[in-house]
Amino acid sequence: MADTEQVNDAAEVYIYGYPLVYDLQEVAEFVEGGGSLPIQAPYNSFAYARRLLGPETKFVSPNNDTLYVIAMLDVRQGPVVLHVPDTQDRYYVLQFVDAWSNNFAYIGRRATGTAEAEFLLTDRADQGEVPDGMTVVRAPTGVFSIVGRIQVDGEADVAAVHTLQISSP
């Protein structure tokens, strides 16, 4: 039987590694389709929820007053440009989540405002030039997720949010 030190080491490895393994599995399922959300897209592209989610959705705890915009990014081969449309003061947030499941940046009404803007999404080691007018967001891991939410004021407002989704990346 393993001694106490080996058991403790094994527990620490599991606790440390589980978030990375789980997150990368979720990323792969989203990209390939068949994940916990009824939307999917290839790497470096957004998928847009076209309807409000309900309790049947097997995603952490989905909001029922926002439409989701979600992307899985891979910036290991180079930066990606993110264009955010003017939301006319409508609440939105883009939550950036690294491969270890840590939040590392936010773009949205509270963090950056609602005006049209462009961001350069890069790997933390990227030292390339940042084009004029862009704000750089450096990711701690080369693969990461953006989980976005756009405010919806009831079913009658869904079409207005669809217009914003179309004008975003």
The helix count comes to: 2
- Total E-strand runs: 8
Q: Runs with pLDDT <50, length 5+?
A: none
Spatial strand sequence of the major β-sheet: 1-2-8-4-5
Short description:
With 169 residues, the chain is of the alpha+beta class. Helix content is 23%, strand content 31%.
How would you characterize this protein structure?
- This protein has helices at 4-32, 158-167, and strands spanning 46-48, 66-74, 80-84, 92-98, 103-108, 117-123, 134-139, 143-151.
- β4 (92-98) and β5 (103-108) form a beta hairpin.
- The model has no long low-confidence stretch (mean pLDDT 90).
- The termini are far apart.
- The radius of gyration is 18 Å and the shape is globular.
- The chain has 2 helices and 8 strands.
- The protein is α+β, with helices and mostly antiparallel strands and 169 residues long.
- The strands form 2 sheets. It has a 5-stranded antiparallel β-sheet with strand order 1-2-8-4-5, sandwiched between helices.
Looking at this protein, list some descriptive labels.
5-stranded antiparallel β-sheet; 169 residues; globular
How is this fold's topology laid out?
Layout: H1 4-32, E1 46-48, E2 66-74, E3 80-84, E4 92-98, E5 103-108, E6 117-123, E7 134-139, E8 143-151, H2 158-167
Parallel strand pairs: 6-7
Antiparallel strand pairs: 1-2, 2-8, 3-6, 4-5, 4-8
